[in-house]
Amino acid sequence: MGHGHGHGHGAAGHAGGRYRSRLALTFVLVAGYLVVELVAGVWSGSLALLSDAGHMSADVVALGAALLATRIAARPDTTGRRTYGSYRAEVFASGLTVLIMLGVAAYVVVEAIGRIGAETEVRTGAMLVVGAVGLVVNVVSMLLLRAGAAESLNVKGAYFEVVADAAGSVGVIVAGVIVALTGEPLWDTGVAVAIGLFVAVRAVVLGREVLAVLGQEIPDGLQMDAVVADLTSIPGVEDVHDLHVWTLTSGMNVATAHLELAEDADSQDVLARAQRMLATEHRIEHATLQTETAPTPQCLEVTW
């Protein structure tokens, strides 16, 4: 049996590790602003500020998970129980983020319904000031993470979070301006609901990605037929069976397969070619491959 131990496991972790200090600074900035926005939202009576604060709370969790993932990815398992390491901590953290985001969206909708027909006073000055500060914080965070987003999927996810935060800050500013000009607080509620729906949509999209990883679905964009065709095109390979490909965590794809070889095939050469092809053509950097000259009875009995 040949084991393809791709050494790309730490690639994303090391790339993210180079930007750990920037992730930490972004986390501090966003968490600090979250406290300010939450207090200002309660004081001003702005549902738009409160909904954006809820959105920010989910992003603080996501940023914290991204920061923690840069440490966990490079930490060896000392228990002997996690043969794949602790890479999926990122996936579980993302699942927690989904629950928080859905809770925020539900709160905003319920609060908006409760304000229908009620007399509500909104302090637009606080909305504009806090929204502007939030926009500055998010732009600074985007500049901090932009370079790392091109190298690490972990940092890229954090970068997209602050981009979404910037959009929320713009929404708060727009709501403040409209309410100040029209004197109608309903606009604040409308913008809040829009932010809440935006958060809910993002939660559903992220939740589907989390479930796809936990359900061990094939990586997005990968075609199994193409993988089989490329493996069987390797000299000496006559057939491929028992092929499984899944995602361990973001940007880390793994696979197992049985390669049926011709009698005169060089198994080591075939393994080397197969591992190199999977890594370069299909982004599968860790492949465990078994070579055989004929399927074993156990292979023929497998139905999954």
TrEMBL record:
Keywords in alphabetical order: Ion transport, Membrane, Transmembrane, Transmembrane helix, Transport
Q: Which InterPro entries match?
A: Cation_efflux, Cation_efflux_CTD, Cation_efflux_CTD_sf, Cation_efflux_TM, Cation_efflux_TMD_sf, CDF/SLC30A
Q: Which Gene3D superfamilies match?
A: Cation efflux protein transmembrane domain (1.20.1510.10)
Q: Where is the Cation efflux protein transmembrane domain?
A: 25-214
Q: Which residues form the Cation efflux protein cytoplasmic domain?
A: 219-292
Q: Which residues cross the membrane?
A: 23-43, 49-70, 91-110, 122-145, 157-180, 186-205
Q: Taxonomically, which superkingdom?
A: Bacteria
Signal peptide interval: none
What's one GO MF term for it?
Answer: zinc ion transmembrane transporter activity
Q: Which GO terms describe its cellular component?
A: plasma membrane
Instruction: Indicate how the chain sits in the lipid bilayer.
Output: Multi-pass membrane protein
Q: Where in the cell is it found?
A: Membrane
Known PANTHER family for this protein?
A: CATION EFFLUX PROTEIN/ ZINC TRANSPORTER (PTHR11562), RE54080P-RELATED (PTHR11562:SF17)
Spell out the family assignment given in the record's similarity comment. Answer: Belongs to the cation diffusion facilitator (CDF) transporter (TC 2.A.4) family. SLC30A subfamily.
Q: What is this protein called?
A: Cation transporter
The organism of origin for this protein: Nocardioides turkmenicus
